[in-house]
Specification:
The protein has a domain at 13-53. Helices cover 52% and strands 0% of the residues. The chain has helices at residues 13-29, 37-53, 63-79.
Length: 98
């Protein structure tokens, strides 16, 4: 087993509740697995550090931005179809108003 160093930190009640929710969700996804709060914190820290080290940026975007991006992609596909026989499927809520 790897040697570990104990580190104490102060967390708000809200953050502790969020960590506990994460822990319980993981336990539901994996019946029979029991995850301590410390293990949940290690999992969350490791995951975020992996993202940071790989240069990933997590961004929260609203529904409007997602729909704009989808509409732009649909427009691109309609202008330059990949093959003449390949139809472009457009979700009903993204069809342009005529």
């Amino acid at each position: 087993m790897t040697m570990t160093e104990q580190t104490a930190i102060r967390l708000s009640e809200e953050l502790i509740e969020r960590i506990d929710r994460f822990r319980k969700d993981k336990e539901k996804e994996n019946p029979g697995l029991e995850i301590s709060r410390s293990e949940a914190i290690r999992m969350l820290l490791t995951k975020e550090l992996d993202f940071q080290e790989k240069g990933y940026v997590l961004e929260v975007i609203g529904t409007e931005k997602v729909l704009e991006d989808l509409q732009r992609r649909v427009d691109e596909l309609n202008r330059t179809p990949e093959s003449p026989n390949e139809p472009v499927i457009v979700p009903p809520n993204l069809k342009k108003q005529q």
